[in-house]
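Hey, resending since the last one bounced:
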Amino acid sequence: MKSNESSFRPAAVIFDMDGLMFDTERPFVPLWAQAAKNHGYDIPAEVIYRMIGITNESARAVMQNEYGLDFPYDKVRDELRTLLNEEYEKNGIQHKKGLSFLLNHLSAAKIPLAVATSTSKNRAMEMLEKAGVLEYFANVTGGNEIVNSKPAPDIFLLAAEKLGVHPSCCAGFEDSTAGLKALHAAGIRSVFIKDIVQPPPEVLAAVWRTCADLEQAAELFNF
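The structure tokens again:
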């Protein structure tokens, strides 16, 4: 992919969800730690960061590799889900800056949009609906629909297939290292919006564009 392209009109745009569209990863880290602590485990933030952007089963592997096969992953995950639901009921699902502006901008340009998230599809649909943005997307692909999670390209390839668009004709938005690697492997131009984790330089070197926020990213698509 050429980093010096002055203009590119994508045939479709694919979005990650958590940490990219919604500010859900900031509460995720302390609430994961709280849920684990309630089961007798003190888990540092740097371990929890390793679960960002990957599927449930990949996250299970992270915790079992770190704390052993006896780690009560399902119990902690269920408690985390309860804590997150309480957070969302109290404060809503917070949009990242510029989300509505960018979605409206791309929709006005008649560019099809999709979601490719490591979250399960049903959960993702529920969150997108609660956040008031589900109607913008032609389809949603969840982590439960693929075998190999990010950084493998599978989820983005499937999202592009559902759209009927070749990956090379798409742009993709991500905030995580795993997601950026997946976009690159899929042959999709990546737009990086930083959330809480800074990817390593070698990952950023393959990124098509970096923007401060989603509102600024709309400037990439002025046709």
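Residues 73-91 form the longest helix (19 residues).

Sorry for the duplicate.
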